[in-house]
Structure formats: structure tokens, C-alpha cells
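Record type: monomer structure entry
Structure origin: computed from sequence
Chain ID: A
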Amino acid sequence: AAMSRKGVKLLVDSLTRSAKHFNKSEVECLVNLFDTLVARSSSQFAGAGFDRTVFRDTLHSAFGMTDDVVLDRVFSTFDRSNDGCITVVEWVEGLAVLLRGTLEEKMKYCFAVYDLNGDGYISREEMFQMLKNSLLIQPADEEPDEGVKDLVDLVLKKMASTYLLVPFLLQDYDHDGKLSFADFEKAVREEKLLLEAFGPCLPDIK
């Protein structure tokens, strides 16, 4: 439903405080964009927000994000209420981290994207799912899945990564076959390129 001018002002003031990384005029622009996206969305949320399809289309057109698994996970990190609807608060606060978050905020965000089942760890299986699309060329005599499994092993064994083409510092420090947030954080602080080790989930500089 349309808000009164006073209601919009109060919303913008509140979001400017909670989103931290945007000034008031930027928040106003994001709220206006939100209203445009809601108008494009289905009516099932009664004007309260927009759905997964509109969200994915927006991230694809604005940031060139195309990976289906990543886009679904990014949607889940924005949709904190887990109701399938992105509200204006989730929209602005989510973009604050996506576009201007601190390293700490981005580490938590990326880890949440890669933790497909939300159990607090990135398991071998989750790495496999995230990296499956990264191996574009396979040896003729090798199954594609075998190549991904080999890459996951390299990640866990602190070997050179063909995914990033840099020495891989991401290590399973407690040797349990999965990465905790502490493992991930330690590796990223040593080498910031590892922030998106399992797939691009942040906009590039452009």
C-alpha cells in the first residue's frame, strides 16, 4: 500500500540509521527502486515486497550475476524472515552489505551464501555444488564430477587452486572435512581473494 509522505520520511530516516553505509538521498533512491520492483512483482505479497524472480532478474541486470545456485543463496541471505518476500528493510539493509559492507560483514555474507544448508559449515558436498560450474574444460577421459571432487580436495588440502589461479590458502584447520566460519575467516584475512572462493556472490568493481 502507498505510504504517506510522513511515513516515507520516517522509513528513510530509520533505514539510513540501520543500513549505515548509505546516506539519506541514497536510501530514498533505493526505496523508490523498491517501489518500482514491487509494482513489477506478483500481487501475492500485497505490496509488501517482491519475490525471488524479480530479485534474481534485478541482480542479473544490475550486477551481471548469472549463477542459479548463487542467486538463490543471495536471495536467502536477503530474505531474513524466510517468507519468500523481500521487504524494503531487507532490500536496503541487504544492499548495504552487498555494495558497501565492511570485510567482516562481507565475510559473514559470503559464508552464509556458501553454507547451503545453513548448518554453520561449508561441507565437501556444498563445495562440490558451488564449484561444479567453475570447471569449464574437462580432459576427454575424465568425468566432470571427478574434476570437481579433485578441486574440493585441493581446497581442503591447502594446495594451488585452478579456480582462482593463485596459491590457495583456504584450509580446513581442524581437519574435519568441512570449513567452519573460523576456518573461512582465517583464510580470507590472509588472502582477500578467497572471499569469493566458491563462486562470485558480490558485484565486481564495475
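Annotation 1: The longest strand covers residues 121-123.
Annotation 2: Residues 158-169 have pLDDT under 50 and may be disordered.
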